[in-house]
Write a structure and sequence with these properties.
Blueprint lengths: L7 H5 L7 H15 L18 H5 L15 E2 L3 E2 L1 E3 L2 E2 L1 H13 L3 H25 L4 H12 L2 H4 L7 H4 L2 H16 L4 H18 L7 H11 L7 H14 L2 H12 L3 H15 L8 H16 L2 H8 L8 H22 L4 H17 L8 H4 L2 H17 L8 H30 L8 H11 L5 E3 L6 H7 L6 E2 L4 H9 L4 E5 L4 H12 L6 E6 L5 E8 L12
Parallel strand pairs: 5-6, 5-7
Antiparallel strand pairs: 1-2, 3-4, 7-9, 8-9
Helix pairs in contact: 2-5, 2-6, 4-5, 5-6, 5-9, 5-20, 6-20, 6-21, 9-10, 9-11, 10-12, 11-18, 13-14, 17-20, 18-20, 20-21, 22-23
């Protein structure tokens, strides 16, 4: 039976200099992030729930419509649960970054990049403790750091699903530590459970990994640590880490007048989401999963969001073969030879567990849900290559066995970065990913008379709230009476129209206000001239139509 590349006990004795290779990973990642850091525009889901940070950073802000569960906006500033299936971690974790770098496009990119750096550091820690040499762990993390699927996740809505991967990996690291410390194993297991609970609060899809984590506890810890006491410690920690869910649900019940009201609200919400409504046959489920995984690994999901067209990275098929096929073959070989390491088994089990549970949702889950498999695949590849490199006689040169596949992967990823960055610089993104939203926020913030703005259509309110630092009042609900009252008080009121016949809809708002025609209607277009939305501004004055009588 072959041993891992390096026993875990040796890792515990390594000095801090073992982390020096990670400095190179951070530098490589910084270069990838810095490309066109100000673009594309701030897509609405790419800043949700970060936009709520402006209320925490600034004591006085204009009214801002907050999208979250009833009762979960404590003191009108502090969010708890955004929805029934994820919390507000990104708001709280992003606060230091937004305080230092500002609520700007650049500040958002840097802060989200720090989330990504946390994922890379956690993966490095797990791989190094699993017996990989520091250079091997660093090489795998560097390959992930330049993968467009990973870097663009933190420019899009995928950031909210990928960021909690740091908690999951740190949870695994704690399980590793539990296997090394007989005296304090339960403490490490409790910490690992708490970190896993935080991952699930970050986004519900991390619950899909639970079966694999149960196996990891058996593989990585001795029987005396993974027995009933160890399980109780881990489950207790998970309950503590996931406590935001019951707290948030209790706040909903309090706001809705009891459990009955909360349950009715939940049913109404789930009916709108249709989470389990799409239940096709098994063949269709498998086809959907395969296509969605491909969209995640080949970056076509992000490409479609940003550029409004289907596209993938160069050599996408070969990249998937390296990331999905090679680890599977390495694992099968290791199991056949009975020398599979706990790390290799765990990373493969994580991927299998996720896909199996995700299939219960039929075709409801999309690319950003499956993006969490990208870091897992890099962990599986690294541990699989380490297993192959440790095989006696079968392979020529352990360094080459490990390095060559990763070098090919890095080359493909760099090619993908060049392709995506070039198109981004040329187009500035399209649709709600264009810099038109940036210009809207800048114009509203710089207006001598900042209007109160209604955003009846999806896509604009959260980015504007974030980019203006809460200096522009807004609402997403149609409220003609409140708007008219502001107009009669002398305050300008604006309406941003995205969909439908914009002229007709602006006229409808004018009639609703019972006001004069808008003083200005400003179109906002992407770089190719296509108009995306229009901002109609009504001039407020105390002597407006019917104001004296009102």
């Amino acid at each position: 039976m072959n041993a891992p590349a390096r026993p875990a006990a040796a890792i515990a004795r390594r000095p801090a200099r073992a982390w020096w290779p990670f400095v190179l990973v951070a530098a490589v990642y910084a270069i990838a992030v810095a490309q066109n850091i100000g673009l594309p525009g701030v897509y609405m889901d790419a800043v949700n729930p970060d936009y709520l940070a402006v209320r925490l950073l600034h004591r006085h802000t204009e009214p801002i419509a907050a999208w979250l569960l009833p009762g979960n906006y404590l003191f009108g500033r502090a969010p708890v649960l955004i929805s029934f299936y994820h919390g507000s971690q990104q708001t709280w974790l992003g606060l230091p970054g937004f305080f230092l770098f500002g609520t700007t496009v650049t500040g958002l990119r840097i802060t989200h990049a720090l989330f990504g750096l946390g994922v890379l550091a956690a993966l490095f820690a797990v791989l190094a403790r699993a017996g990989l040499k520091p250079w091997q762990a660093a090489a795998a993390c560097a390959a992930l750091a330049v993968d467009p699927s990973f870097t663009y996740a933190f420019r899009t809505q995928s950031y909210i699903t990928v960021a909690p991967m740091a908690w999951l990996l740190l949870s695994l690291w704690c399980v590793q530590r539990a296997g090394e410390h007989d005296a304090h194993g339960s403490r490490w297991l409790a910490a690992g459970g708490a970190l896993y609970g935080l991952a699930v609060v970050g986004y519900f899809v991390y619950a899909f990994f639970l079966p694999a984590l149960a196996l990891a506890l058996r593989w990585w810890t001795p029987p005396r640590a993974s027995g009933r006491g160890g399980w109780l410690a881990w489950c207790g920690g998970a309950a503590v880490g996931g406590a935001f869910y019951p707290v948030g649900y209790a706040l909903v019940a309090h706001q809705m007048g009891g459990i009955g009201g909360a349950w009715a609200y939940f049913q109404q919400t789930q009916k709108a989401l249709n989470a389990f409504s799409e239940q096709p046959a098994l063949a269709e489920r498998l086809a959907h999963v395969a296509a969605t995984i491909a969209s995640a690994f080949q970056n076509s999901f992000h490409h479609t969001l940003i550029f409004g067209e289907h596209g993938s990275v160069p050599g996408g098929g070969f990249k998937m073969a390296l990331l999905l096929g090679l680890p599977a073959l390495a694992w099968l070989r290791a199991e056949w030879r009975r020398d599979a390491t706990p790390a290799l088994r765990t990373f493969v089990a994580l991927a299998v567990s996720y896909v199996v549970v995700a299939m219960l949702f039929g075709t409801r889950l999309s690319g950003h849900h499956y993006m969490v498999l990208v870091p897992v695949a890099y962990g599986a590849l690294a541990t699989g290559l380490a297993s192959l490199a440790a095989a006696p006689r079968a392979w020529q040169g352990t360094a080459a066995t490990f390095a060559l596949p990763l070098a090919a992967l890095v080359a493909l990823n760099v090619g993908g970065q060049v392709k995506e960055a070039g198109q981004l610089a040329a187009t500035g993104g399209v649709g709600m990913y264009s810099d038109a939203i940036n210009r809207l926020a800048a114009d509203l913030d710089a207006a001598p008379r900042r209007p109160f703005v209604y955003f009846p259509d999806w896509g604009l309110s959260m980015p504007v709230a974030f980019l203006t630092g809460g200096r522009v009042g807004m609402d997403s609900l149609e409220n003609f009476a409140a708007g008219r009252q502001m107009l009669c008080a002398g305050r300008d009121v604006a309406v941003a129209i995205v969909t439908g016949d914009r002229g007709a809809r602006i006229s409808a708002w004018q009639r609703g206000f019972g006001w004069d025609a808008p003083a200005s209607v400003v179109p906002y277009a992407q770089r190719d001239g296509r108009e995306l939305f229009a901002l109609a501004t009504f001039r407020g004055r105390p002597d407006g139509p019917g104001c004296a009588a009102g």
